From TrEMBL:
Protein's UniProt keywords contain Magnesium: no
TM annotation in the entry: none
GO BP field: response to stress
SUPFAM superfamilies the record matches: Winged helix' DNA-binding domain
Protein name: MarR family transcriptional regulator
Length: 144
């Protein structure tokens, strides 16, 4: 593949990611949540088991102290709770509160509407090809 095409691919991917996130943030602004906070809530909703604070930081892609501040805010809003881990006194499991569920349903509904708009005209075959390309690039990044 030509070097310019590779460069364009990377730039386009970064631009797409920023624009998609900004549009979703704009649509979610009426819910009173910052982008960082709704992202934490969505990750918590998607995980099968409540993660530790450290696991959640890794999943969301933020540093531990940053996540701690986000969780402080979400906890003060009554949206998450920190539960002690009996086998490790330093660790805390992060659990969504019942109050968070209706809010997450709104976030997911808004996000689904945006995805439908963004993927209009994209065939299943094109989506599968794109996912294969992304998976290969990610695999290449993870090589030692």
């Amino acid at each position: 593949m030509h070097t310019f095409a590779q460069h364009s691919f990377g730039m386009q991917l970064a631009q797409l990611s920023r624009a998609w996130r900004a549009e979703l943030d704009r649509r979610l602004s009426g819910l009173g949540l910052s982008q960082a906070r709704w992202l934490v809530l969505l990750h918590l909703a998607l995980l099968e088991e409540p993660p530790t604070q450290r696991e959640l930081a890794k999943t969301v892609g933020v540093e531990g102290p940053t996540l701690a501040r986000l969780l402080d805010g979400l906890e003060s809003q009554g949206l998450v709770q920190r539960h002690a881990v009996p086998e490790d006194r330093r660790a805390k499991k992060i659990v969504l509160s019942p109050q968070a569920r209706p809010l997450i349903a709104q976030i997911e509904s808004i996000a689904l509407g945006l995805r439908k708009e963004l993927f209009a005209g994209v065939s299943d075959e094109d989506m599968q090809l794109c996912q294969r390309v992304h998976a290969q690039v990610l695999a290449n990044l993870e090589k030692d």
